[in-house]
Amino acid sequence: MLLCTNLLRLMSDPIRIQFVCLGNICRSPLAKVVFRDKVEEAGLDDHFEIASSGTGDWHIGDTADDRMRETARKHGHSLEDHRASQFQKEHLAEYDHVFVMDKNNLNDVLYFDEDDEYDGKVRLFREFDPQPDSYQVPDPYYGERDGFEEVYNIVDRTAAVLLQRLIDEHDLQATT
Fold first, then answer.
1. DSSP symbols for 35-75
2. Is 0.90 surpassed by the pTM of this model?
């Protein structure tokens, strides 16, 4: 009976996902909303808890970058409710998966993993990209507007593959 109770509890717990970039105003908030919208389209909202954060602290409380909000809106996603937050050491234990946007973010997050307990759950987001290039999502912040569109395309295709991988891994049934 205890085994069945624990199994039911585990089956009902959401899969907790955190997307991480540098300032939490461009790449990771976009990944969060694109992934969230794909989860909702699949009818799997109850199975996921999705967050984003940055490794730096200088944008805490800020809205997403205007150019990223515009890019997201153009593709039917909203970043209007986003407020930047900073990744914390305790997130390593709280989240099942931490997907970072580049190798610097990977190093910054793994810095908190002093006992090497969590490296299996911290991964480069583009490991799931069918066109991974350098495995890093380029930071569009200091570039031109077309860089935001490039990031959207990377995030959109990668989020689709990531969701399918998690559906398969957790034996979920999409309703659409």
1. HHHHHHHTT-GGGEEEEEEES-STTTTPPPPHHHHHHHHHT
2. yes
